[in-house]
Amino acid sequence: MSKFRIAVHITPRKGLLDPQGKAVTDALHTLGFSEVKNVHVGRYIIIETDAYDAIAAEEAVTEMCEKLLANPVTEDFEIESAVPA
Amino acid sequence: MKFGIVTFPGSNCDYDAYHAVTEILGEEAVYLWHKDHDLRGSDVIILPGGFSYGDYLRAGAIARFSPIMQEVVAHASSGAPVICICNGFQIACEAGLLPGALMRNSHLQFVSAQVRVRVENSGTIFTNLYETNEVLRIPVAHGEGRYVASDDVLDALENDARVIFRYADAKGNISADANPNGSERNIAGIISEGGNVLGMMPHPERACSPLVGSSDGVRLFESILARVAA
Asked: Which helix (H) or strand (E) holds B158?
């Protein structure tokens, strides 16, 4: 077993109303960043885990996302490549 | 009849539910600790409101994995009644007892207010003492109460008469103005496919006495007694 570090990005499902992203977009417009089209606010999770190899670590984290870290009804997730920790 | 009220770390409506059951209904109630595996002979389970586990990750996401939830899911699978109020509704959706999810209110603000809901189906074990289309006054208090689901799921809920309460105005009209959180199709409460699990954001246990502004919630609990006793 080796130690790995994996980052996960969780974002609101595209097409669903994202009031938080809309509020931040409006605030940025108020600040003068009128070129901003859209903002989506999500979560960034860093997982440090033991695994046999990087592939096994990524598979485990994918399962964690499906079962707990992301809501399958309202959120999408992307995991970054595992890096040795 | 015995009601089991689950206490998670962060639950805060368990005492209100206990009061409604024992003082208003005159039935027996027990608190069930989230770490236990025993429903202690409860006939009806209540998942109360609050902020279980501080709403960490997502509201209800962690509570779903509490030991007691295995027993609650088994209880629900056996067809026995489960009432999931506010945070309880969020937990039930996370646990897959009910479809959909509760998201941040569309206006981003916590809403604590008396609202009105229209009874959409009085043929359930939770609503048989109400009239269909009757308008009830029941309070809400939540930051994440916007009900969302895919259009297919929403259509199925409506076609199967599983939408039980909708936010409405005093005359029973369903409008955006009457919707306190931006819920899809003004949905305030739904039941499971088997009809024995109720999820709702409004708090019927806080509408059980004229002293607190409304006693429209009493008949929800009485409906269960009436149906099970029948």
From this structure: helix B151-159
Contact B201, B159 (CB under 8 A): no
Confidence band (pLDDT; 50, 70, 90) for B228?
A: low
Query: Chain A contact for B228, CB < 8 A?
Result: no
- CATH entry 1.20.140.150 includes domain A2-84: no
Q: Does B214 touch chain A (CB under 8 A)?
A: no
Q: Residue B156 belongs to a domain with what CATH number?
A: 3.40.50.880
Task: Round to whole Å and give the CA distance between A58 and A50.
Answer: 11
pLDDT tens by residue, A7-39: 999 999 988 888 999 999 999 999 999 999 999
Interface test with B, best of A74, A76, A77 (most B CBs within 10 A): A74
Its ipTM equals 0.83
Instruction: List the domain range (segments joined by +) for residue B90.
Output: 2-229
